[in-house]
Amino acid sequence: MLALAVLLPFFAPISVRPKAGPQTERFLRALNAAVERQGPLLICVDYGPQTMAEMEPILVAVMHRVFAVKKPVVFMTLLPEAAAPTRRLLEDMAAKYGLEYGADYAFLGYASAFTMAINAMGTSIEDYFHKDDRGIRLENLPIMDTASRLGDFSAVIDIASNTMPQFWISYGVAPFGFEFLMACTAVQATDYFPYVQTGQVDGLIAGGRAGAELEWLLVDAGFLDEPGDATRALGSQSLAIAAILGLIVIGNLGHFAARSKDKQVRS
Amino acid sequence: MNLSTDPYVWIAAILTLSVFSFLYKDNPLFALVEHLLVGLSGGYVFVIYWHNVFLPELIEPLVEDGLGAQAHLWVPVLLCFLWAGKYMEKTQDLYRLALAFWVSVDMGLTIPAFMEARVLSQVAGTLQVNLTGTWDVVLGNIVLVAGTVAALVYFVFTKAHRGIIGKTATVGSWIIMIGFGATFSYTILSRVYILIGRILFLLRDWLGIVT
Predict the structure, then answer these.
(1) How far is CA B188 from CA A25, A199, B115, in A?
(2) Which of A87, B66, B95, B189 would you call most buried, defined as having the most Cβ atoms within 10 angstroms of its Cβ?
(3) How far is CA B112 from CA A205, B108, B119, B191, B209, in A?
(4) How far apart are CA A192 and CA A262, in angstroms?
């Protein structure tokens, strides 16, 4: 039944345009402000294949926003399995926007021992990363000329499906104090809302639904021609949720009916 | 229909269908994919570590700059050997040295960082709520403070949950339940996304039925 609910909207599309919530608007405002500021952006990609369906559309939307104005972006990952999908996405984006490696973007690759990595990058990136993902020394990358530590980036964005943002907040934001934006899966949303409330996180995209909101905001702003996969999934998502709610109601009705029948038999 | 001609897409599609076959019942195809996943993940992580960590951070500096030029690099090498000592009977106690080193460094980094980010900042954020603004913002802030206090009271076990403490603890338990409910519904959202991702892959990338 759930598979059917997910399948149907791909053949009979349900038009869903989500209203952007305050969290998504705040994220985009913070992202726009970071694009305007001096210094490259740092995007840390921390999701694996298992959460790609939810996280990749968010990363793609952010990439379109920043690369449309050729904002220099440095990429890295704290998760080994995120390296290959990031390389693939960067190749697509470089071809679409005519980006030059080293000047418009760079991929530092995988950083092991994430707590040490974040801590070390707070004072010197070259002390931790000697070479990028392609084996090029950091001093030979023009994009790194103005970024020697985390505070030099206009913002740090973590697109994560794990607990990495908590480590960015603890080992990065708290001691070094830089602008921090993040995106997470819906499962983690309730873990990160408190950090937004305290101002430790400057913008949060919580799950695919918020990703769809971001896509529509970017369509309205002219950075995207049409909404992407996050919006496309909303039809299936809506029907699946309706099916689950229906099953919960039916299950509860069945439970109460059985209990009442049981009581009648006993009395 | 625009069937993919990419062999990698076909392999991924067949593996996806093999995993879905478990919905019918456990079968050899599913077991094969399970073993493949474990083997490939281990191999992939090893290759990433080798190319991104061992080669550029340890082996290349030692070879290029000379074995004695960067003496500090011998510390992690020594720690690695101490860890490996665990697998031989005569040297198995040596790993405790490496473990002690790791725990002490990690504790030194973690305790102040977590106290600042997860305790002090969160407490300050809860205490410094703004009670001015529109009515919905003020109400939200009051619920935040009252809800935090009530949830904390629920975990006070040194006093019997009677009277005002009992009533506050009951409110706290409701707050916690609402939190669990929100988390559960968000979890369903995420899990459905995983299914959507796989079905979209099969329909678009493999079968080419949808664009």
Answers:
(1) 24, 28, 32
(2) B189
(3) 28, 7, 10, 35, 54
(4) 45
Contact A52, A82 (CB under 8 A): no
Contact A190 B182 (CB under 8 A): yes
Paired with A101 in beta bridges are A105
- Report the alpha-carbon distance of residue A233 to residue A63 in Å, rounded: 19
Report the complex ipTM: 0.83
In the block, residue with structure tokens 């071809």: A95
Q: What is the pLDDT of residues B150-172, one digit of tens each?
A: 999 999 999 898 999 999 999 99
Q: Tell the residue number behind the tokens 């990031």, with chain if given.
A: A86
Backbone angles phi, psi at A71, to 5 degrees: -70, 125
Q: Which amino acid is at B145?
A: V
Q: Are A241 and A94 in contact (CB under 8 A)?
A: no
* Separation in Å, CA of B15 to nearest CA in chain A: 14
Contact B189 A208 (CB under 8 A): yes
The structure tokens listed for A41 are: 């952006």
What is the least distance, in Å, from the CA of A254 to any CA of chain B?
21
Strand order in the sheet with A180-184: A105-110, A73-77, A41-46, A155-160, A180-184, A203-206
Within 8 A of A132 by CB-CB distance, chain B residues are none
A170-211, pLDDT tens digit by residue?
999 999 999 999 999 999 998 999 999 899 999 999 999 999
H/E element holding A97? helix A83-97
Q: Three-state SS for B179?
A: helix
Structural domain includes residue A249: no
- Domain membership flag for residue A134: yes
Domain count, chain A: 1
DSSP 3-state assignment of A183? strand
Query: Which CATH number characterizes residue A133's domain?
Result: 3.40.50
Residue of A nearest to B198 (CA): A53
Which residues of chain A does B57 touch, with a Cβ-Cβ cutoff of 8 Å? 130
Q: What DSSP element (H or E) covers B59?
A: none
Q: Do A53 and B122 touch (CB under 8 A)?
A: no
Residue A142 lies inside a defined structural domain of this protein: yes
* DSSP reduced 3-state for B162: coil
Task: Find the residue in B nearest to A49 (Cα).
Answer: B194
- Tokens describing residue A230: 């996050």
- The whole domain housing A200 covers 21-241
